[in-house]
Amino acid sequence: MNIVNILEEIEKVDGEIYERLSPRRSAMKDFYSMGKKIALAAAPLALGSMFNKAYGQTLPPAVVNTLNFALSLEYLEYHFYNHALVAAPTLTIPAGAPLAAITTIRDHELAHVNLLKGALGAAARTEITYAMTDFTAGGTFPTVYSDYVTFLKVACGFEDTGVRAYKGQATVLKGLSVLTTALQIHSVEARHASHIRQMLAANGATIKPWITGSATQSNDTGVSAVDAVYAGENLDVQAGITITGINGTAVTRAAAVECFDEPLATADVVTIANLFIKPGFKL
Amino acid sequence: MTMKNNELETKSELQDERLFNSTVGRRSFLQYAGASAAGIALVAAGCRKDRNFPAVPSTGATLDFKDDFGVLNYAYALEQLEAAFYVRVASAPPSSFSTAQKAYFQDIQFHEVAHREFFKNALGTAAIGSLEVDFSTIDFTSATSVLGAAMAFEDLGVAAYNGAGVRIKTDAYLVLAGKIVSVEARHAAYIRDIISNGTFADLNSLTSLGASVAGGLDAALTPDKVLAIAGKYVKTKINVINL
Predict the structure, then answer these.
(1) Which of A48-52, A97-101, B41-45 is predicted least confidently?
(2) Considering only alpha carbons, which residue of chain B is nearest residue A19?
(3) If A213 and its partner were Cys, which of A27, A234, B117, B173 is the partner (CB 3.0–4.6 Å)?
């Protein structure tokens, strides 16, 4: 016996169910339906137009800041991958699946840049060009564009930072349609992170698609230079509830760490991002 | 599970069929929809006295989206489904799974169990009951079938969290949902790559779940759409109100 879709049943007997049950939510619904259109069309212009409608051309400063912050990170990610693909002759990304994956990720980052630029319109920050970046992080990763594994390690740090950064901004966007858009970017970054981690594993690293840890270890990449990216990732208490062994289950500390990704505060993300930006252009 | 519980479940299944083979009247719906998770027993008791209304099952779960508890219960329902699936896979994985795949499916099993138990504890007395699952469409001996179902669960989970986030009113719960959805996305990517390497974020294949290729955006679906898809795997009736 399969479940009956209760909503269909509801609509059969009461076509006005939504209005009747929840008239107060009409404002939220407008927001939400715009969000759905964005999800379908997802053109940067559409998002920009939604903002114009929603805010009468003026974005709240906190939302502008958050979207510009996201835009900065997306510029960095885009240039990181794009340079690897088009202008790093000493870097060999193996043809086939690896090259295709890096291309896919680069294309997503560019789509995110364009989406956020469109959403911000005139409020968008100035463009970050490749010339403003330094993916060696001041010499910490001198072989980032000549050694494939080093390149993947930095990529892993970028993606895991991206996941944590979006998570840290969620409350600023609470209840807004753009939160959905931000969440949709956030989970794409998590998919990237999972894949980059698998690429690292395929090249000899001991690393899982998810971030593992222990009571004493939060950085599971084996790259101490990226400790800041993973600081505080090894929590096993969520909302006051201890996850290890929860309700008598066999959930280990490692699984407890793995099953919740932690947010990163804006200031911490800025510190990490600035490692990859030349003086004079830092966030 | 005790024998008594099994008997009750059998009885309630029969009642379910009776309810849905008959027409759901407006009055019966209102009574049904008015049931909160905690109030189901009371409503059911009241309905027995109503001769015009067929027996209301003693099982069933109501997701009342009027507040964050509704969203958390929605997440709890989906995590129950995922956990039940992975517990079964991890206990007897398809024979063609590699050692690494078996280990990672163990990991995922514990992640989903942890999510399920977390929501159960966080919701406390507001938690819906345990859902009865229906995995009859999945061949647990076949890697293809198991991986296909796992991908469906993970992609749907991502779409569900992404689509429900905007409904959450409490900062702490919003952040918690964010902490979980990225792990589901990591699972989804891993499983997709086993099925076909490189499809970790194939947004083209996710457009039916609300993804956008042009925007580089992942899946996002409203709860009604998610539950319509998930319904195939759940026997327990899920009632949705105040969506």
Answers:
(1) B41-45
(2) B242
(3) A234
Would you give the distance in Å from CA A157 to the centre of its chain? 12
Only one residue has tokens 């795949």, namely B101
Read off the tokens for A259: 């099953």
Q: Do the Cβ atoms of B26 and A14 come within 8 Å?
A: yes
pLDDT-derived band of residue A34, with 50, 70 and 90 as boundaries?
very low
- Compute the half-sphere exposure of residue A147: CA atoms within 13 Å on the CB side of its CA: 11
Taking only the tens place, the pLDDT of each residue in A249-276 is 999 999 999 999 999 999 999 999 999 9
The shortest CB-CB distance from B182 to any of A13, A101, A187 is to A187
Q: What angle do CA B180, A62, A238 make, to 5 degrees?
A: 25
Domains of chain B plus CATH, in order, are: 3-59 (no CATH), 68-236 (1.20.1260.10)
User: What's residue B59's pLDDT?
Assistant: 63
The percentage of residues in chain A with a pLDDT greater than 90, rounded to a whole number, is 79
Alpha-carbon gap: A241 to the closest alpha carbon of chain B (Å): 7
Report whether A62 contacts A176 (CB < 8 A). Answer: no
Task: Assess: ipTM above 0.90.
Answer: no
Q: Which amino acid is at B147?
A: L
Residue A80 near residue A153, CB atoms below 8 Å:
no
Give the model confidence (pLDDT) of B120-174 as tens digits: 999 999 999 999 999 999 999 999 999 999 999 999 999 999 999 999 999 999 9
Domain annotation for chain A: domains and CATH numbers = 1-41 (no CATH), 44-49+59-209+267-283 (1.20.1260.10), 211-260 (no CATH)
Contacts of A167 in chain B (CB under 8 A): 175, 178-179, 182
DSSP structural state of residue A87: S
Cα dihedral B52, B54, B55, B60, rounded to 10, equals: -120
